[in-house]
Amino acid sequence: MYERSTNAHKQQKLSSRGRRFSASHFLRTSSTSPSLYSVYLYTQMIAIQRTSASLVGATTGARSSPATSRRNHRAAAASTVTRRDGMRSHVTSMERRTKNSFRLPAIAMPSPEVNEQMQTMTYNETGKWRENFDLAGWAKEIREVEKEQRSDKYHEEDVKHLKKILGWANMCYYGGLGVMFLLPQLGVAQAFGANVLGAFMMSTAICARWTMVGHHVCHGGYNAAMTEGNEIKGRFHRRKFARGPWNRIIDWMDWMMPEAWDVEHNHLHHYQLGEDADPDLVERNMKTTREGPMPMWARYMQVAALSVIWKWFYYAPNTMKELFARRAREAEKRGEESYQPYTTGSMPSTVLTTVQSAFQGNFGAIIETAKCFAPYATFQFGVLPAVGYAIGGAQMAMATLATTLLADLFTNLHSFIVIATNHVGDDIYRFESETKPRTDDFYMRAVIGSANFRTGGDVNDFMHGWLNYQIEHHMWPDMSMRCYQRAQPKVKAICEKYGMPYVQENVFKRVGQLVDVMVGKRTMLVWENGD
């Protein structure tokens, strides 16, 4: 009863979509005897048992630091599979959405064809674009665009453009100061003692200096233009810009310490985009809110409050945590004693966690955070009100303080809208495996792990903080602002040619995506799940 003709058996070959045979199907269609099938079934079950043991062992360890993440990644190298596009992915990441459960592999006929199909990623509906995606061909064309943009023929144009943007920022800032100090003397009404126009102009300037000037200079986007031979010739080189107390005052008057931001952003975020070790991974950072018992209305209130205080409440302390973590790793490599006052592990450090640590007897975090805050807070909320007092007495001093506080709320909100939205949404990928810089995979992740906003025109790009070119920026972090303007249409066209998703949407629609992920209404795509 188990016998079938040879021709009938051949008609049951696996399709090109990788269909696998079940045990019962095997019995119905195979000419193999029951006894031989029992031996085969037994060997398959042994293999499944070993696979399940390795999966459980791989998913029980908690990740406590980026260093631990890299050790776990190396330890799991034996559990990687090769997908159709040549990329690597972790078997252990395939079932993230089923709370660390694992899927037993389908029992397939013991043939090379089926074994090859079993090692091919099964794509979900959102991942259909990956089935025939030509990564090598796509990356080749992307590198041609990169080569063109790195030409030294653009250096003079790029530096001239940078100075123009800095000039706009300075006009906003000093214009805001003028409005703040002069309009009250002319009897212009103010809101609750604060000059709203002056606050808006100052806030725009503070955001611009960080997101456009400091951001791209500290990435090294103008290094080549600022170098002659081996000698640094200009101010806008990452080794000179904002270095030292005086340069921080004139180049980087903000809540964050430049050195700490360099570690957190330039190194960890850019080269571990969307991975668990990415300090800016919104879905992970908001886990308590997303999965906690808080009602939905309270979650929205929390997000609204965070949007106007996030730079000093969350971002600055967390950059300090990453700075000290790096120093601790370097000290351990030298065999020296390490020091890490921030003790939140893989979760972000905030002002709240530093205060909690102080109540537990650990004053290191709150002291280091205060040092980080001191230059900006002293100037904005001390020096400027003192100038106001000199001009118009106590009333002017209070009006100046109110205006600078309002400016800080505005610049927090502005930067939250254009920064926090860059790598989040249910159409954006996160990753549970690592990649190497400058590889084809690295460039691909920059596209599918980022979202652009409306692009084109200096005024539009200025108001977006030049963060509307996030895809191109994550491909090539060390390029100038003008490079991204020139490259963006070409990159988008190449992605459309090869069928790769290129997310570009109005910034306020992206805010909706961000908020929904923060409160738990949306979930990001996961590359290793076949999304």
UniProtKB/TrEMBL annotation:
From the Swiss-Prot or TrEMBL record, state where the protein is found: Membrane
Disordered: annotated span? 1-21, 59-95
Which keywords annotate this record? Heme, Iron, Lipid metabolism, Membrane, Metal-binding, Oxidoreductase, Transmembrane, Transmembrane helix
Q: Where is the Fatty acid desaturase domain?
A: 197-504
A Pfam family matched in the record: FA_desaturase
Q: Where on the tree of life does the source sit, at the highest rank?
A: Eukaryota
Membrane topology of the entry? Multi-pass membrane protein
Q: Which organism is it from?
A: Bathycoccus prasinos
GO cellular component: a single term:
membrane
Biased-composition ranges, Basic and acidic residues, are 82-95
* Entry protein name: Fatty acid desaturase domain-containing protein
Q: Which family does it belong to?
A: Belongs to the fatty acid desaturase type 1 family.
User: Per the UniProt record, which residue ranges are transmembrane?
Assistant: 165-183
Which taxonomic lineage is given here?
Answer: Eukaryota, Viridiplantae, Chlorophyta, Mamiellophyceae, Mamiellales
Question: Where is the sequence biased in composition, kind Basic residues?
Answer: 10-21
> Which PANTHER family does the record match to this protein?
DELTA 8-(E)-SPHINGOLIPID DESATURASE, FATTY ACID DESATURASE 2
